[in-house]
């Protein structure tokens, strides 16, 4: 991941963690592929247990704040855990998995149900 995007991604993740417990945060798109234009946005997918309007707004505010200082628009694509799992085979999420870079990946599955303990 390019240094600017790495800095913005870390800031975005830090802001998110102030009020949420994201399960997955993954950067993708032209800025990671290396074909971004100067005004290209920085795409990130965020997976949260349950998403409501207030949380969606908070995530958008975190995105704006993370990129503002650098003149970069951060565009979050927000999924609840259930929606993400349901859409996992979609072409978009498969491309993000293949081409993107992970900023955070907490387990989506409760290992205690399999006899394991969660950290």
What's the quick description here?
43% of the residues lie in helices and 20% in strands. It is α+β, with helices and mostly antiparallel strands and 119 residues long.
Broad structural category: alpha+beta
Helix content: 40-55%
Residue runs with pLDDT of under 50 for 5 or more positions: 110-119
Work out the number of β strands: 4
Order of helices and strands: HEHEHEHHE
Rg measurement, Å: 15 Å
Reading off the top of the CATH hierarchy, the class is best stated as Alpha Beta
Largest sheet: 4 strands, mixed
CATH structural fold name: Beta Polymerase, domain 2
The number of helices is: 5
β-strand percent reads 15-25%
Note the overall shape.
Answer: globular
| Mean pLDDT across every amino acid position | 89
Domain tally: 1
Strand order of the largest sheet: 3-2-1-4
The CATH architecture: 2-Layer Sandwich
Instruction: Give the termini separation.
Output: 28 Å
